[in-house]
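dumping these here so i dont lose them again. two proteins, back to back, each one seq then structure tokens. dont judge the mess
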Amino acid sequence: MNRSHPTPRDLADALGAVREDIKALKQREAELRAALLDARNNGPVAGSRFVVTVRESSRRSIDMNALPDAIHRDDRYWKTSTTRTVVTKPLPRPGPVPQEEDIELIEPW
């Protein structure tokens, strides 16, 4: 059967599989990053295809807990936004198919 458009069910499975791959890749990235930082934490490191440079930066952020209660309660300082999120969860793997039991029925005469 040649379908030109995937069904929502097909899309759900494809998205879930891609997200599983991304999760595994992110884990591998974290491991490689940590190993690189442990091996050499400054200056560029050149492989045969890529150069990795470790940089350090700082950023300034506001401490929300330090703000006065008046600001926390004042709607002029806040905005509301709506976000649509697509969540994927793997379905439980099906267990083994139950085998039929041999049952012998004995009826009284």
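---- next one ----
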Amino acid sequence: MRLVRNLQRKRKLEQQKKLAKGVAIGTLVGSVLGSAAGILLAPDSGKNTRKKIQDGAVELKHNVEKNVEGAKSNLENTLKNRKEGIREVVGKIRSLRKTACEDAAACADTIEEEIAIESEEKSE
């Protein structure tokens, strides 16, 4: 029963993701087409229109470069934090391993001492 419910939930989530993706793409395409139509249909000279298009392209390029740099910086910071976290975990594991080895050695020494004591008692 749970398996069927999980599959139904999974299908529903996939459908919602598809719908959200379609809406996002539609909004983006509509915005671009609306902007282009507004620029091209505006009562302005061709020279001014071309200048506006050029300025818009330059601004778009600048925004894309800025967003790429921001994403790159975020990714670098995330990777740095993850590496530090991994190093900490490895250090803790090494410390635990060392402690476990020391504990095992101490236990072995204690057992050897007890065996020696018992063998002495038996020989007496």
